């Protein structure tokens, strides 16, 4: 048997131990900042949010339509892709800035419009608006947000604000909202086009999600240890949707369900153009034909989206649609994407495959529920770091350098449009690029 020499040992000195005793300083941090400081991913923030938020509001954010197949497949589309990194590039400096609709953004993503935001956390849209302003990215206010247009604008003056419009059955009210948004400096109109009716969102029904939140024995027990959430709810102003008008009695307010106009067609873009002088974006494009038709109609942007999987279940994952749409209309219309995005790597992949910009929804709502405004700041820190790291490891230093060659899409399902076999790579078509533009 071989003889192995023993370790040479010595008595440790205080200077040897000192490096191991360095503690993270939490001095000066608020309680919310301490709560989210150890979150390193959006999924970490989601876990904190689930502990702190009653089931109704949490599952309103977390859930989708019917069997939630669309939502799951949208996430799988990002999980299944492969990156193709280049090596031996100087990536000591990485620039994440880009332009979208003619104006700069410090990051290749922004915060998309979401409904009922104050139900997630009492500070609601103003808290998100301030975080977006600090990050230098745009943020969209929803027609069914829970903050007025004026209060939203006042929360982050000088920041870039978009306004999302559900076309209401009451066209006069729609026109008044558009005029109000323009008067308060909103620069872009996002028209949601995938919500002719409300999707069958089973989690909302199962968890008793309503507006305003209702106390039943079940919801009371669920919320009994979420004292801060209920305290915030009961000690702040009652919720009002963005589309509600202050002089209209509460008893006469239109219900959320059924208040939109189900008869809207492409012909309605004409009066929208007359009412809004800035860029118009159609959100909810789910086929190549509709993307082409939107581009032919002259809109400045489209968002490939299936509403986060909350409308038609089994709808195509937007990421799978992206390469074909970008190749076909990307030169004339800015192509954006949402749904399924959880990481900065997802954002980078979407940009490489042809998106000009990416909109986040659930990601910042989880953060808001987890830690309020501090949580949203933490989400931006996480995503910014992930974007930078992914770009550097791909060997690129600017958004303009990202291209389809950096990503390979993999489908675990057969596809009618291109009929690949399961687990067969879907080649991303090359995208024409204008020199010096993105």
Automatic annotation (TrEMBL):
Coiled coil: none annotated. Keywords: Flavoprotein, FMN, Oxidoreductase. Pfam families: FMN_dh. One of its GO terms (molecular function) is oxidoreductase activity, acting on CH-OH group of donors. Its cofactor is FMN. It comes from the Bacteria. PROSITE patterns: FMN_HYDROXY_ACID_DH_1, FMN_HYDROXY_ACID_DH_2. The active site is at 307 (proton acceptor). FMN binds at residues 113-115, 142, 164, 192, 283, 305, 338-342, 361-362. Glyoxylate binds at residues 60, 166, 201, 307, 310. Residues 34-412 form the FMN hydroxy acid dehydrogenase domain. Transmembrane segments: none annotated. InterPro entries: Aldolase_TIM, Alpha-hydoxy_acid_DH_FMN, FMN-dep_DH, FMN_HAD, FMN_hydac_DH_AS. Belongs to the FMN-dependent alpha-hydroxy acid dehydrogenase family. PANTHER family: 2-HYDROXYACID OXIDASE 1, S -2-HYDROXY-ACID OXIDASE-RELATED. This is Alpha-hydroxy-acid oxidizing protein.
């Amino acid at each position: 048997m071989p003889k192995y020499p023993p370790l040479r040992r010595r008595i440790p000195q205080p200077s040897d131990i000192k490096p191991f005793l360095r503690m993270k300083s939490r001095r000066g941090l608020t309680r919310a900042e301490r709560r989210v400081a150890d979150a390193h991913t959006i999924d970490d923030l989601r876990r904190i949010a689930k502990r702190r938020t009653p089931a109704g509001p949490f599952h309103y954010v977390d859930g989708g339509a019917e069997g939630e197949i669309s939502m799951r497949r949208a996430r799988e589309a990002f999980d299944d892709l492969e990156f193709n990194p280049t090596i031996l590039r100087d990536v000591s400096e990485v620039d994440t800035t880009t332009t979208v609709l003619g104006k700069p953004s410090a990051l290749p993503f922004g915060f998309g419009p979401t409904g009922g935001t104050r139900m997630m956390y009492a500070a609601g849209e103003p808290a998100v608006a301030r975080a977006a302003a600090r990050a230098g990215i745009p943020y969209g206010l929803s027609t069914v947000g829970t903050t007025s247009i004026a209060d939203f604008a006042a929360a982050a003056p000088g920041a870039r604000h978009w306004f999302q419009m559900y076309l209401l059955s009451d066209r006069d009210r729609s026109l008044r909202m558009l005029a109000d948004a323009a008067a308060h400096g909103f620069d872009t109109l996002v028209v949601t086009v995938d919500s002719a009716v409300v999707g069958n969102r089973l989690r909302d029904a199962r968890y008793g999600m309503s507006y305003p939140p209702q106390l039943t024995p079940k919801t009371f027990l669920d919320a009994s240890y979420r004292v801060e959430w209920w305290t915030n709810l009961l000690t702040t102003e009652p919720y009002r949707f963005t589309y509600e008008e202050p002089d209209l009695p509460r008893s006469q307010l239109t219900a959320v369900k059924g208040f939109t106009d189900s008869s809207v067609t492409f012909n309605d873009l004409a009066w929208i153009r007359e009412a809004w002088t800035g860029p118009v974006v159609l959100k909810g494009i789910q086929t190549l034909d509709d993307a082409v038709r939107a581009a032919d109609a002259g809109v400045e942007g489209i968002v490939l989206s299936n509403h986060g999987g909350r409308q038609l279940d089994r709808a195509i994952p937007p990421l799978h649609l992206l390469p074909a749409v970008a190749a076909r209309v990307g030169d004339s219309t800015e192509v954006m994407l949402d749904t399924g995005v959880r990481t900065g790597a997802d954002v980078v992949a979407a940009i490489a495959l042809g998106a000009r910009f990416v909109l986040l929804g659930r990601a910042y709502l989880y953060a808001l529920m987890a830690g309020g405004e501090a949580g949203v700041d933490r989400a931006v820190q996480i995503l910014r770091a992930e974007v930078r790291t992914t770009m550097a490891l791909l060997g690129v230093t600017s958004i303009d350098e990202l291209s389809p060659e950096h990503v390979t899409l993999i489908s675990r399902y057969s596809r009618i449009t291109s009929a690949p076999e399961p687990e067969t790579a879907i080649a991303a078509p090359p995208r024409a690029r204008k020199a010096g533009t993105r």
